[in-house]
Amino acid sequence: MPSDARGYGARDDTAFFKKLKQAIDGAPRDLAKRPDVSNYKDDGYLGRLTDGAFALLADDEDSQAIAPHFSAPTLTAEDGRAELGCVLDGFFDRAARWHGADRECRCDPEHAAIAVDLGLGKSRFARVRLGYFIEHAKTEGRPHRILWMVPIHRLGNESAADMRDLGLHVAVLRGRDAADPSAPGLTMCVNLTAVADAQAIGESVETALCGTLAGACCPFHATCAYQAQKPRAVAADVVILANQGLFNAMNKTMRANLALTIIDEAFWQTGLAHYTIRLPGFAAEPTTWPVLRDANAQREGFTMDGVRMSRRRRRKAGDLPPRWLRTRTRRPNCTIFAGRPRRRSKRSRTKGC
């Protein structure tokens, strides 16, 4: 067997050569010019090519950087499941003891990560242990509710069905752009254009757009499927939601009695948000949707009007670039008015933009 490549450990040339030979046999070729390809499938020839490729990449920093930093698994599937169960039991036990400890004496909560091979059953093993954890937490008067985060809603639906079979009280909290299961063809929020505008300037969608029925709010609030699901989620012992929820604020009612957050599958890529907005359309786009109508305002208008005024003042002062493509990650602090702002004295403008 050819020599090992630095930084990669032992090579399985037998399996690799088998794949290469299958690819060679399946590759299209002109039978008249190349009727026989046995010389290409010779182990010696493939070995020299493979040695050359590994030697070429041995000193390449980018290639070496992607080498795994953990050892390859050596346990059988049965042994791996047994060890996985012990690790999960230990984590749930430590979490229970942390919640039961005196607030002034306990340290920061534990953050744990588990990396296992595909198909070992980590999600199923964790779900089976939720019932015991929740039951004992309720009995002892501790926080018991659990957030279960998933990358896609299909996995969320599968997890919810499995948990219900286990007797757990579960609710799925769908995102605004997710499909509404009760209204085929519609999304949970029907005002997604306004949502995109708020996200592009770094505003909280919940406070800047949704509002509350007791005050200024989105005109679709009363019939909104996204808002209607929240009471069910608050009452559930397990709340399943997409990984995007990790990067958004959660209100106090939803956080009540939360004991654990379990993130199923990778999540950090979800936080790499990039919003692009053209300044000429910045003032016009929010007015496309009737967001936060205020009956007490001097006119029936939009709270984004003040942003437009502020941006015109700042552009005149030279604080904004010319009107071409501009990428923003956060809108500078601005005063937002329900109607057209009155002209103020210089002394009263100190808190504006």
How would you characterize the overall build of this protein?
This protein has 353 residues and is an alpha/beta fold. Among the domains are: 138 residues, Rossmann fold, CATH 3.40.50; 74 residues, no CATH class. It has 13 helices and 6 strands. The protein is extended. The N terminus and C terminus are likely disordered.
How far apart are the termini? 70 Å
Averaged pLDDT: 75
CATH class of the domain at 80-174 and 229-271: Alpha Beta
Radius of gyration: 29 Å
Sketch the major β-sheet.
4 strands, parallel
Would you list the SSEs in sequence order as H and E? HHHHHEHEHHHHEHEEHHE
Counting DSSP E segments of at least 2 residues, the number of strands comes to 6
The strand line-up of the biggest sheet is 2-3-1-4
Looking at the overall shape, the CATH architecture of the domain at 80-174 and 229-271 is 3-Layer(aba) Sandwich
CATH names the topology of the domain at 80-174 and 229-271 as Rossmann fold
Shape descriptor reads extended
What low-confidence regions span 5 or more consecutive residues with pLDDT below 50? 1-9, 289-353
Helix segment count? 13
Instruction: Kindly report the name of the CATH homologous superfamily of the domain at 80-174 and 229-271.
Output: P-loop containing nucleotide triphosphate hydrolases
Share of helix, binned? 25-40%
Give me the secondary-structure category.
alpha/beta
Strand content: 5-15%
Question: What would a concise description of this structure say?
Answer:
The protein is an alpha/beta fold and 353 residues long. 38% of the residues lie in helices and 8% in strands.
